[in-house]
Structure formats: C-alpha cells, structure tokens
Design a protein that fits this description.
Blueprint lengths: L1 H20 L12 E6 L7 H14 L3 E6 L10 E5 L8 H4 L1 H9 L5 E4 L2 H6 L8 E6 L11 E7 L27 E5 L7 H9 L7 E13 L5 E2 L8 E6 L4 H10 L3 E7 L8 H14 L3 E5 H7 L9 E10 L2 H13 L6
Length: about 350
C-alpha cells in the first residue's frame, strides 16, 4: 500500500514542479537576492546549522542576511511573523517554531521572519535594510519563490532516503530533482567513506554542480539552565542520559559516543516533540537512578525545555557547528558566487 501511495505522491510532486517550470503556476520574485538551502528528504540533514553558518559568512562580509523560514509547528498562525530584527528577539519557540527561534537567538544582527509564503515573509523587510540577501531555510521544494542560488544538502549517512518517496521512504521528491541544484553540500561527511559512489549518483542528474563536503564539530557543552560552557574533553568518559527529539537522533548518539561519553540510557522522541514536565521528570528520575553525570540534549531540543523545571547541572546542551573541509576556500568560493547574484529588475 505504501509503495502505491509513494507512486501517487511522486506523480503529484513531479506535476507540480512541471507546472512551475513551464510558467503555468506563477512564481514570485523578491527585490533582493535569494539563496535557498534545502534537502530532498524529511528529517534532519543539518540544514538549519548550515543556514546559520552561511548567515555569519554574509554578515562578516558586509551583507545583511535575512532568514525566511516556514516556522514548522508554530502556535502563532499569523500569515507573517517577525521573530527577530537586528536588535532583539520578539517571540518564544512555541510561538514561532524551535528552529527559527534557535537561529534568532544564535545569530546577532540577523533578522528572522516566518510565514507559510516565504514571498510574503520576505516583503516584510525588503525595504528596511541595504545590501540585503535572503536565506531561505528549508526552501528546496518552495519553488513558488524564485531564487538566485539553490543549495541542496545531502546527508552522507542517508542521502536519498532509502530511494523511496514518502510514505514508503523519506524522499520529498524524486532524485532527479538534483538537477535543480546550483551547489550541493554533503553534510556529516566524517561519518561516510563511499564518496565516489555518492558523486556518481549525483552526476547522473547534475553533471557540473559543485560539491562541498562538511563535517560537524562539537564545539562545547553548556548548561541548559545557566549557559556555563565546558569543553567536550571535560565530558570524556562521563556517563550521560541522551535526550533528543530531532530528525536524525542516530547522529546525535554517534556524536556522544565519538567524544567517549557513556550513554547509560536514551530518551528519543519524534522530531519537534513538545516536551512536557512529566516527560522531563521521568528523564531526570532516570538520571538519579543510574547516577549519570547529566542529561545531554541538542540545541534544538534545549529551546523546548526552556520553560520546564530542572536544576543547574542536570541538563547540558551539545553545541555543534558545521565545518567545510577547507574553511577559507569555501568562504572564498561562496562569497564569489554571492558577489554576482543580481538584484531583481
């Protein structure tokens, strides 16, 4: 049954793309350049950290990045919601969604706007800043908005979602959609060795697209209550409880084990799960039972724990930053692409 539904889903997705490509369905254009970052699969591929990474590069180079996001599972259903401007954050994670909130908190001076229509979201600020560039978070399938640079992310550990479309697999659209990419980023490349085979599959659909390889570095662990920071080496050999509600929890668990933390127990929930106090109390009770050093969670999960009751030293957040193989070379190539992005006519 799932295979049949996947075929029907694939026909609908392909028809939608065809109608936009032929101009039968109308695309919208913003006044300033749009860089889209997205993927082919559901679940985590590291796109939100990459959006933050690119925003920081643009900001340091003198541009004014503005992040446009859907705001998945946000409680505020306004058509357009300003999450932050260059000075302050205006809403919490429940109101705007955990990923937009996380970006707004981490990126000083980078506005974040959410809306089901990223075109309407972008128009909110298009006359407010000079040298503006939009970063479209999770935008590969949001083809009703024209973009100047289309960055596709593939997770090296599962780049093609089992090669099946939803609901049989994890693909949002067929792999031929790789043809639309102007650049490809392979994330979590440190967890994968068969790069030659992966590139062959990419080249089947896109002969000349530049491919960059990124790994993820654990840069710190910080106390979820106080923000006190520790180095990863401070947790070497420590017994911990793993807590996560993300798209790829196996990657999070791998990172804990890579830094030689001993996982005494794990609590894994569905992506974007809204934690309740009774659920957290069970986790903290288990922490006491096994006498582990702490609960360790992800940055995205930490924003959903913020309003719950726990004590200093009980929960620590694993801070991860994306890094290309050659940071300076990647910055140079990316900014060279950005320099020639045209403003709307």
């Amino acid at each position: 049954m799932k295979v049949l539904l996947s075929k029907i889903y694939g026909l609908i997705v392909s028809l939608r793309v065809f109608l936009y490509q032929k101009g039968i369905l109308r695309k919208h254009r913003l006044k300033h350049p749009v860089i889209s970052v997205g993927n082919l699969t559901v679940g985590g591929t590291g796109k939100t950290p990459l959006v933050g990474f690119l925003a920081q590069i643009l900001k340091k180079a003198g541009y004014q990045p503005v992040i446009l996001s859907r705001g998945y599972k946000r409680s505020n259903k306004n058509a357009v919601l300003l999450v932050s401007d260059v000075r302050e954050v205006f809403c919490g994670p429940e109101e705007c969604g955990d990923e937009p909130y996380l970006l707004a908190r981490k990126l000083e001076g980078v506005p974040v706007v959410v809306g089901n229509s990223r075109y309407q979201a972008g128009r909110l600020l298009e006359d407010r800043y000079s040298n503006l560039i939009y970063l479209l978070d999770d935008g590969y399938q949001h083809i009703q908005l024209k973009r100047n640079l289309n960055i596709l992310i593939l997770d090296a550990t599962d780049p093609f979602g089992g090669h099946h479309l939803l609901p049989a697999g994890r693909l949002r659209e067929p792999t031929k959609a790789i043809a639309r990419a102007d650049a490809i980023v392979i994330t979590r490349s440190h967890m994968f060795s068969e790069t030659e085979n992966l590139e062959e599959q990419i080249r089947r659909w896109n002969q000349r697209v530049p491919i960059s390889y990124f790994h993820h570095d654990v840069t710190a662990l910080y106390d979820a209550r106080t923000g006190t920071r520790f180095q990863p080496r401070d947790f070497l050999g420590s017994s911990v409880i793993a807590l996560a509600a993300i798209g790829s929890p196996h990657v999070f668990l791998h990172d804990l084990e890579h830094y030689q933390m001993k996982i005494s127990d794990r609590f894994i929930f569905r992506d974007h799960h809204p934690f309740s106090q009774p659920e957290l109390d069970r986790v903290l009770k288990r922490l006491e039972e096994v006498q582990a050093r702490a609960v360790v969670t992800t940055e995205k999960d930490a924003v959903r724990l913020k309003k719950l009751d726990f004590q200093e030293g009980q929960i620590f957040v694993l801070q991860i930053e994306p890094q290309p193989e050659d940071l300076q070379e990647y910055k140079k190539e990316f900014l060279n692409e950005v320099k020639f992005l045209p403003e709307a006519q």
